[in-house]
Write a structure and sequence with these properties.
Blueprint (H helix, E strand, L loop, with lengths): L44 E6 L6 E6 L2 H10 L13 E6 L8 H4 L2 E4 L4 E4 L4 E3 L7 E4 H13 L2 H7 L1 H18 L7 E5 L5 E2 L11 E6 L3 H6 L20 E7 L6 E10 L5 E8 L6 E7 L7 E8 L8 E4 L4 E4 L4 E3 L7 E4 H13 L11 H19 L4 E7 L5 E2 L11 E6 L3 H7 L9 H4 L5
Antiparallel strand pairs: 1-2, 3-8, 3-10, 4-7, 4-9, 5-6, 5-8, 11-12, 12-13, 13-14, 15-20, 15-22, 16-19, 16-21, 17-18, 17-20
Length: 451
C-alpha cells in the first residue's frame, strides 16, 4: 500500500539558546553564514518570503541541520547530488524481531523528496516525490503516513466503501506500530544520498542502524535529473523490413487524395522487393505495384512453367515491370510494362490477363465485330479452363533485368515442371533497359567541366 497524499508538516521551530560566544554574522554576498563542525550554535536563518495562505510577507526560518550534523559525525560535506557512484544511502533501522523503544521512535529523520520509505512487514511504501522533504522523527514519519491515508477516507466511504474499509484496517496496523505493539523494519532508500537517520549512540556504532552505499541506476540518474556519462554509441541503421511506410498520393482513377503503403519484403530463395499498395476510400480503387529492391542482374531470366495441376495456381509470382508473359497454347503474349509490377499468385495474374483482354474498351462497344467478340469469349473460357486445371499449358516469364520470380514448391530441390534459364542480354534489350548509356565506372571524370 502506498501513502502518496500525506499532510505535510512544517519544520519544527528551533529556539535560539544563549551562547557564551557571539553568533557569527553571515558573510556579505551569502545567504547563510558559514557552517563549521566546531560551531555549536546552530542558529536558524530568517528569510522574508510571501505566505501562500494569507498572501503577506512573513519570516521563513530555515536551519541547515543535515549539513551541520553530517560534518560533525563524518567530516565530509554533503548537500549536493554527486553523479559519481558510492554516494547514495540505504538506511535500515531495526531488524525483524526487535521491538522499537521510545528512544528509537524519537530518532530524528531527514527525508528528502527523492527518498522512498518502506515498512516491509506491512508491505507499505511511500514513493519518491510523493511527499515534500521533512525533518521529523520515526514516529513523525508514521504519523504523516496515517494522516495521508485518512484525509480522503470520507470520500472513499461514500464512493468506494470496500476500499475505505481496507484502508481503515491498514491505518489501525500503522497506529499499532507507532505505539510499539510489534517489531518492524524502517527502510529509507534515497538515491540522492541526502537523507539521514539519527544515531543516538554516536560516535559509537549503532547495531540497529545499517547504512548501505550503492551505485545509482540509469533510471535513478534520470529521476534525479542527472545526466549520466554514457559511451557514445554509433547510430543504428534503420531496419525497414518490419516497417510499413505511408505517404500521401492521389488515386489514379478519381484523383482523390489517397494513402500509399510501402514495405520492403524478402522473398525466400530470391531477393528483396518493395511492395506499394494504394486503396482509395472514395471510389474503392485498389492497386499494388512491385519495385525491385536491388540492381539489374547481370543476366536475363526466362522461367518456363508447365501447368499440369490446379495447385499450380497457388504459386507466388513476382512480375517486374520489365517482364513479358507468354502462353503459347493461347497464342498470347503480354509485353513489358503491361500490368506493371505485381506480386501475386499465378491465378491472380491469369485473372488480370483475362480482365485486361476481355474488358479492353478498344475491342468492345458497337464498333466491335461479332467475330472479334467470339474470339474474346473463347480466350476467356480457355483461361478459365487453365485456372480450373482442365487445360494444360505453358506459362513463360521473360525478364531481361532478371528481377522476376515464380515460386518453386520443391525448393531447395529442382522443380520438375519448371525450368529457369539465364541468358546474355542482346544490345536491343540493354538499349530498352537504358543500360548501354549507363556508366558505373569512371563517371566522376565526366562531371568535371571542360575548359
Amino acid at each position: 500500500m502506498s501513502a502518496s497524499g500525506a499532510v505535510e508538516t512544517g519544520l519544527p521551530a528551533v529556539a535560539a539558546t544563549p551562547s557564551p560566544t557571539p553568533a557569527r554574522a553571515p558573510v556579505p554576498g551569502r545567504l547563510f553564514r558559514p557552517i563549521s563542525a566546531e560551531d555549536e550554535e546552530q542558529q536558524p536563518t530568517e528569510i522574508e518570503s510571501l505566505c501562500m495562505n494569507c498572501y503577506r510577507n512573513r519570516n521563513n526560518r530555515q536551519l541547515l541541520f543535515l549539513r551541520a550534523l553530517w560534518l560533525e559525525q563524518h567530516g565530509d560535506p554533503v548537500g549536493r547530488q554527486d553523479p559519481g557512484p558510492g554516494n547514495t544511502l540505504h538506511f535500515d533501522c531495526q531488524g525483524p524481531g526487535v521491538f522499537l523503544s521510545a528512544q528509537d521512535m524519537n530518532r530524528e529523520v531527514v527525508k528528502t523528496d527523492s527518498a522512498t520509505t518502506r515498512i516491509p512487514e506491512l508491505d507499505f511504501e511511500i514513493p519518491a516525490f510523493s511527499q515534500k522533504g521533512a525533518l521529523t522523527t520515526v514516529e513523525g514519519l508514521i504519523s504523516r503516513a496515517i494522516s495521508g491515508l485518512e484525509q480522503d477516507q470520507p470520500t472513499r466511504r461514500t464512493n468506494k466503501e470496500a476500499i475505505a474499509e481496507r484502508i481503515d484496517e491498514f491505518i489501525v496496523k500503522l497506529k499499532e506500530l507507532k505505539h510499539g505493539a510489534s517489531p518492524f523494519t524502517l527502510i529509507i532508500d534515497d538515491p540522492s544520498g541526502n537523507s539521514f537517520v539519527e544515531n543516538p549512540h554516536a560516535p559509537q556504532k549503532d547495531d540497529a542502524l545499517v547504512i548501505t552505499h550503492y551505485n545509482r541506476t540509469p533510471q535513478q540518474e534520470e529521476m534525479l535529473g542527472l545526466q549520466a556519462e554514457t559511451p557514445e554509441e554509433k547510430p543504428e541503421e534503420e531496419d525497414l523490413r518490419n516497417e510499413v511506410l505511408q505517404f500521401n498520393t492521389n488515386c489514379p482513377e478519381c484523383n482523390a487524395p489517397a494513402q500509399t503503403n510501402m514495405k520492403l519484403v524478402q522473398i525466400p530463395h530470391f531477393k528483396e522487393v518493395i511492395i506499394m499498395a494504394t486503396n482509395c476510400e472514395y471510389c474503392g480503387h485498389r492497386t499494388n505495384e512491385v519495385k525491385s529492391g536491388g540492381a539489374v542482374e547481370p543476366l536475363g531470366t526466362r522461367i518456363n512453367l508447365h501447368i499440369t495441376d490446379p495447385s499450380d495456381m497457388t504459386r507466388d509470382l513476382l512480375k517486374s515491370e520489365t517482364c513479358s508473359v507468354e502462353i503459347p497454347e493461347l497464342e498470347f503474349e503480354l509485353g513489358m510494362a503491361v500490368l506493371g509490377g505485381k506480386f501475386t499468385t499465378l491465378e491472380g495474374l491469369l485473372k488480370d490477363v483475362r480482365e485486361l483482354v476481355t474488358k479492353n474498351p478498344f475491342t468492345l462497344g458497337d464498333s466491335s465485330s461479332p467475330g472479334q467478340m467470339n474470339k474474346l469469349q473463347e480466350f476467356s473460357q480457355r483461361v478459365d479452363q487453365i485456372i480450373e486445371g482442365k487445360m494444360k499449358a505453358h506459362f513463360i516469364m521473360n525478364d531481361p533485368a532478371g528481377n522476376s520470380y515464380l515460386q518453386n514448391v520443391y525448393a531447395p530441390e529442382d522443380d520438375p515442371e519448371m525450368k529457369v534459364e539465364y541468358y546474355e542480354r542482346t544490345f536491343e534489350q540493354n538499349e530498352e533497359l537504358g543500360l548501354n548509356d549507363m556508366r558505373t565506372e569512371g563517371y566522376e571524370t565526366s562531371l568535371v567541366p571542360q575548359r
